[in-house]
Design brief:
Number of strands: 0
Oligomer: single chain
Helix content: 55-70%
Strand content: under 5%
Largest sheet: none
Distance between the termini: 27 Å
Shape: globular
Length: 176
C-alpha cells in the first residue's frame, strides 16, 4: 500500500510540474527546440531543475541500505554508450521535435481536450508494438536479439545492484 501511495504522490507531483512548466504544451516545447528561430529558453530552467533534483535524489538514495518500502534498489550500472542508446535517443529527440510531445507530457495533455496527444500516443504505442514484432521476427530468423541490452539486463537482475559508494563489497541491500 505504501509503495502505491508513494507512486501516486510522485506521479501527481510530476504531472503538476509538467503542467506548471508547460511541458505539455507542444508550442512551448517546439519554441524551446527551435534554437535558430524564435527560441524560448525558459524550458532550460525546467530541465536544469530536473537534473539538480535527480542528482541530489540519487546521491541520497545510494546512501540508504534499502528502499523505504523494502526490496532492492534498481539503479543502472551500465555506463557505456552503444548504438541502441544513440539511435533510441535520436528517435526520441526527432519525435519530440516534430510532435512537441514526449510520453509523460502527452499523457498529461490528454486532459486538455485536443486530439493531437491521442494521435501521438497511438503512434508511440503502435511503433513500440511494431518494434517488438520486428525484434521477435528477427530473433527467430537469426537467433540474435536486435536489442543487446535485453540479455545484459536479465543478467543484472540476478546480480545485486552495486554502486561506486559500495565498492568495498557491500551492496545496496546490506546493512552498513
Amino acid at each position: 500500500m505504501g509503495r502505491n501511495l508513494t507512486s501516486l504522490l510522485a506521479g501527481a507531483i510530476f504531472g503538476m510540474g509538467l503542467a506548471v512548466s508547460q511541458m505539455n504544451n507542444p508550442e512551448k516545447v517546439i519554441a524551446f527546440l527551435d534554437i535558430f528561430g524564435d527560441w524560448d529558453p525558459s524550458l532550460a530552467l525546467v530541465l536544469l531543475s530536473a537534473v539538480v533534483v535527480s542528482f541530489v535524489g540519487f546521491r541520497l538514495t545510494i546512501r540508504q541500505p534499502q528502499p523505504v518500502w523494502g526490496g532492492i534498489f534498481h539503479i543502472p550500472t551500465r555506463r557505456d554508450i552503444d548504438r541502441p542508446l544513440i539511435f533510441g535517443a535520436a528517435i526520441f529527440g526527432v519525435g519530440w521535435g516534430l510532435a512537441g510531445y514526449c510520453p509523460g507530457p502527452a499523457i498529461g495533455a490528454l486532459t486538455i481536450g485536443h486530439w493531437e496527444p491521442y494521435l501521438f500516443l497511438a503512434a508511440m504505442i503502435s511503433s513500440s508494438l511494431a518494434y517488438k514484432t520486428f525484434d521477435r521476427a528477427l530473433d527467430k530468423l537469426t537467433g540474435r536479439r536486435l536489442h543487446i541490452l535485453r540479455d545484459n539486463a536479465q543478467r543484472r537482475i540476478a546480480d545485486p545492484c552495486k554502486t561506486p559508494a559500495h565498492e568495498a563489497g557491500k551492496t545496496l541491500n546490506e546493512e552498513s
